[in-house]
Amino acid sequence: MPNENQSEKEILASKLLNNTITPEEMERLECWYAEVSEDAPVWNLKDKSPADLQQRLLNSIRSKINVPQPKYRIGRYLAVAASIAVIGMACFFVFNQEHVSTAPTMMAKSSTAGKIIKIHLPDQSIVWLKGDSHLDYPSKFSDSTRNVTLRGEALFEVAKDKKHPFVIRTSAYTTRVLGTSFNISEADKSFRLTVLTGKVSILPASEGASAKNNKPVVVTPGTEFVVNNPAEKAQIVAAPATDKVSILNGTEYDMNFENTPFEEVRLRIEKKFNVKINAGKDAYQNCFLSADVTDQSLDNTLKVLSAVLNAQYSINKNLITLTGGGCNS
């Protein structure tokens, strides 16, 4: 097993000496070897002979380009130089291929006036894009943050992920969350952030989401961060009940069930998450459910549903199958 303190070069060289190296790893090793002088030490391998390593590498290089063993020293140098030149060109293509941009495809969604578009993001977050708005997001989020850009208005249900903050950029502000639900509305020179669940931090866009020594404003559930125009100072106020009603209008955000028939619950889950639930014929017709799965991901919603029904579930793409459990008549 490789020592964690070994460099990748040492590990690959060890694999070469043990005849366990793959063709792809051999290409990388030859590329590194081609970068050093023939007479320079290659790597400090414990209990391994650098001379043996060099000879094996040279033999491998010669075999790949069919350079015959030279009879004279000057010929040997020329052969090695030619080998290194050829391997150098090969390295260009190997490393070029490895470093080809793997940036995910950027997606763009726009809504027309008066229409709401439901968008499922790669992390299971849901965005309700309000009328006459635009959202840009990647087909796959990065390893560090989940970044999207909004113009207009949208209701966000962000999947919880403490290791990957969710960042929404607008022209005036940068909003950062870990997992929560909130509505952002930016129109002309005004900006309004209404938090439904969780906590949301916000900064002026000019300061950036990761600027040092910044002091983000934290907005809590039931409150709004409001800026009516750039000349006025931002305010945090209690969110009127009417605002929440208008924010949720036209969405399937509310998933609070109180003694609700299973069939209604099933249909609402299917509509919200764009899935199909196969529950068998009349298997749960006598079930009435009480559970609040508002602001929950599909996975969490199914866990709650199966627990309430004492059932099991399986997922195959967009088809969910429920088995077992049930309710007494």
Please render the helix and strand layout as text.
Blueprint: H1 8-17, H2 23-34, H3 50-65, H4 73-98, E1 106-110, E2 117-120, E3 126-129, E4 134-138, E5 146-151, E6 153-157, E7 166-169, E8 173-177, E9 181-187, E10 190-197, E11 200-204, E12 217-219, E13 223-227, E14 235-238, H5 241-248, E15 256-261, H6 262-273, E16 276-278, E17 288-292, H7 298-309, E18 312-316, E19 319-323
Q: What does this protein structure show overall?
A:
By secondary structure, this protein is an alpha+beta fold. The chain folds into three domains: 8-98, no CATH class; 106-248, Jelly Rolls; 256-323, 3-Layer(bab) Sandwich (Phage tail protein beta-alpha-beta fold), CATH 3.55.50.30. The protein is 29% helix and 29% strand. The chain contains seven helices and 19 strands. It has helices at 8-17, 23-34, 50-65, 73-98, 241-248, 262-273, 298-309, and strands at residues 106-110, 117-120, 126-129, 134-138, 146-151, 153-157, 166-169, 173-177, 181-187, 190-197, 200-204, 217-219, 223-227, 235-238, 256-261, 276-278, 288-292, 312-316, 319-323. Strand 2 (117-120) and strand 3 form a beta hairpin. The N and C termini lie far apart (60 Å).
